[in-house]
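thread from #wetlab-drylab

HS: before we spend reagent money on co-crystallization trials with magnesium ion, can we at least see a predicted complex? here's what I'd submit
DV: go for it
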Amino acid sequence: MIDAKPFFSQIKNISLRKELLRAIRNHWTHDSTAIEGNTLTLGDTDFVLSEGLTIAGKPLTHHQEVYGHAKAIELIYGLLDAPEITEADLFLLHQAVLSEHVADIYYPVGKWKTEPNYTFYVREEASVEHEYPHPKTIPTLMSQWLQRANAWTKGIGNRDDAIHSYTDLHATFVAIHPFIDGNGRMARLLANIPLLKNGFPPINIPSAQRLDYLNVIADITAPCGDVSLQTDLERLIDADALKQFSVKCQQWWQPIIDLVDRTIAKDAKSNAP
Ligand SMILES: Nc1ncnc2c1ncn2[C@@H]1O[C@H](COP(=O)(O)OP(=O)(O)O)[C@@H](O)[C@H]1O
Ligand SMILES: [Mg+2]
């Protein structure tokens, strides 16, 4: 399936194709930014992106986040013909995703993080502190991640491979946490590149399942213990917990697959003599 055409290219009716891409852009942008705390609804997101108007009473930054994410999706579609994805592509996408932030030395945008970063998650009603890999490990880890992403692009033959590729790239990316911020949104964009390059539609994590998603991600990284100085990508994720993530992604992918299938059926009808 290498060098397959993008999933939308088989839709001949241009209006249908544009509407499908708009619907996917809206869901992907709304869900990914809502997981991160954005307060715009799906309807708000469509209105802001389609009409260029603002939603009264909602923060300016939430409007900018939605624009930045939609721009990043367009950049990703633009990368589909490139032979490989590179570090420079990741930096450009990060600039789009975080376009609302004024970069400074403590908040690098379009560059790897320069300070250690942490998260606290809850296990058995207690807070557990987790330190992400240290900034000095990031160039090594991210060069492994890019190799893996480019290898997956050549290794997807069916839907199971597609899900495995998505969960592997998503989980390893957030486990590395190479940026100061925007790591979740970047993972939810980047892990779809091999799927899109192989003719599959993107997997979308529904914001309604935010807690489930964050718990499974914590389950994937927690068993690896202290990874702050780890330079081997393989040792950042737990294989059993990754399987749980794959089971969930299979369900979460279905609404987008159904939407694409319905559009293809409608297109066939509209082209029938
Ligand atoms: N325990 C964890 N281990 C690894 N990644 C995590 C963990 N908890 C959350 N995450 C990931 O980190 C993301 C939040 O990181 P952040 O850099 O703030 O990204 P964003 O700004 O896009 O939300 C979450 O969406 C999730 O993907
Ligand atoms: Mg954040």
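DV: Residues 239-271 form the longest helix (33 residues).
HS: ok that's useful, forwarding to the group
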